[in-house]
Amino acid sequence: MKIGILTSGGDCPGLNAVIRGSVLKGVISYDTEFVGFRNGWRGVVEEDIVPIVRHDVRGLAKQGGTILGSSRTNPFEGEGGGPENIQRMLDRNGIDAIVAIGGEGTLTAARRLYDEGGIKVIGVPKTIDNDLAATDYSFGFDTAVQIATEAIDRLRTTADSHGRCMVLEVMGRHVGWIALHSGMAGGAHAILIPEQPQSIEQITEWVESVRDRGRAPLVVVAEGFKFDDMAEAHSHKGLDAFNRPRLGGIAELIAPMIEERTGIESRATVLGHIQRGGEPTAFDRVLATRLGMAVVDAVYDGAWGSMVTLRGTDIQTVSIADAVGTLNQVPQSRYDEAKILFG
Question: What is the pLDDT of residues 9-18, one digit of tens each?
Answer without folding.
Answer: 888 999 999 9
